[in-house]
Amino acid sequence: MTAPARRLFGTDGIRGVANRPPMDAATALRLGQAAGRFFNRGSHRHRVVIGKDTRLSGYLLQPALTAGFIGAGMDVIQVGPIPTPGIAMLTRSLRCDLGVMISASHNLYQDNGIKLFGPDGLKLSDAEEAQIEALMEADPADGLATPARLGRASQLEDAAGRYIEWAKASFPRGRTLEGLRIVVDCAHGAAYRVAPTVLWELGAEVVPIGVAPDGVNINRDSGATAPSRMAELVRERRADCGIALDGDADRLVLCDEAGQVVDGDQILASIAERWAAEGRLAGGAVVATVMSNLGLERFLDGLGIGLHRTKVGDRYVGERMREAGCNVGGEQSGHVILSDHGTTGDGLVAALQVLALLAETRRPASDLCRRFAPLPQMLRNVRFAGSSPLSAPRVQDAVAEAEARLAGRGRLLIRASGTEPLIRVMAEAEEEALVAETVERLAALIAAVAAEGALP
Fold this sequence. Notes:
The chain is 37% helix and 20% strand. By secondary structure, it is of the alpha/beta class. α1 crosses α4, α8 (264-277) packs across α11 and α13 (393-406) runs antiparallel to α14.
C-alpha cells in the first residue's frame, strides 16, 4: 500500500519559525502524542530521549513534546543541550524506543526544528514520517494512555559526559593531539562545551570561539555557515587548523593553517583515501549527494573508489550507505557519516579523523585536506513565497535549454530546499564563465517568476 504524502516533515525533520505553526507548542504536543503512539509497541515501559541545541525556543518545544509523550504512555529522558549525533547514540545506548532532537541545525535562532530517530539510532524513513503525520490528524484522544499508564519525566545528568567519551573512542587508540593548536568554533550551539573538552582531553591546545550561547546568537556570524572568524583566528594564532561546527554539530567545515576553508567534499576525499589505504573502506565506494563536486568523483575514480550519489539529505546518504555496504558518506555542506562510529552525521567525529592524520603525519592541513582541484561550481538560492516557481512553463523551458548547453560539459541541478522556501540553482563545468552565466540567468528568471507569483 502506498504511504500517505508528508506535509510537515521535510528533508531533515520538521522545521519552521519558532512559536508559529508547525513550530508551536500545540503542534509539538500533537507530534509527541502521535510519535509516542507510533512507537508504543509491546508491553514494556517505553522510553524516549529528548535533546536540544541552545535556542530560546527549545524551552517552548521541549515541555510540549514531553507532555505529548507522557500522554502516550512514554517515559521521557531529558538531556539538555547536546549534539544531534549524541541523541542518535543515546537512543541506542539507553535502549529507548525513540530519540528526539530539537534543533534547526544551521538556521538562525528564529527557526527551530524537530528530528526523530528510531530505536536503531537512524533517522526515520519518509514512510514512517508520513504515518506519524496521519496519526497527528486523527482523534487526539484515540490510543492515549490511561491515567494509570501515563509516562514520567526525568533528567539524565551525565549525557554530555557520555557523548564526550563516545566521541573520544572514535579517535585512533594510542594517538594524541599533543603539539597541535586547533581553533574550534561551536556556533554558540549544542557542542559549545563538549567539542572543546574532547579536543583538550585528547591533548590539543584549544582556541575555542562560539561558546557563549544566550538563546538568540546560535549560528550568528559563526559556525560552519560563517567560518570567516574561525579562519581569521587560525591565521592570528598560527594554529594548525580550524574546525567550525553548526548549531547542532552534525556538520562541519575545516580550514587549513593558511585560513583556507575546506568543505565536505574535501573531507570525504581525505578520509576515504586514508581508510582505503588502511583497508578500512567498506563497499569499495563513498556515498555523496548530487551536490558534490565532479572533482571529488574524478579523484575517487583515480584511486579505484566508486561514488554513489543520492538526493540531498544526510538521511538519504545513510540509507544508500546501508544498501551499498559503505562506511563513508556525506554532503558537500559538511555532513559526514562514518558508520563505523555512528548512525548520523557527526561534525566532531569527522573532524577527529582528519586531525588523526595531522597528528600522525605532521604534514600541513593544506596538504592533507586539499586532495583534488574542484571544478568551477556556483550555487544561488532564490527565496519564494507561495507555490514553487519551478512549475512555471518558462522556467522549465529555460532549465531545459541550460541543460542542453551543459550536456557533455558539466552538470545543472535545480531543486527546492527541503527545509526552507528556497530554490537552489547549481551548475558546474570546466568553464567558469559558462557556469556563472548559466546560474545567474536561471536565478534571475526564477526570482522574477517568484515575484510575479507573490503579487495579489
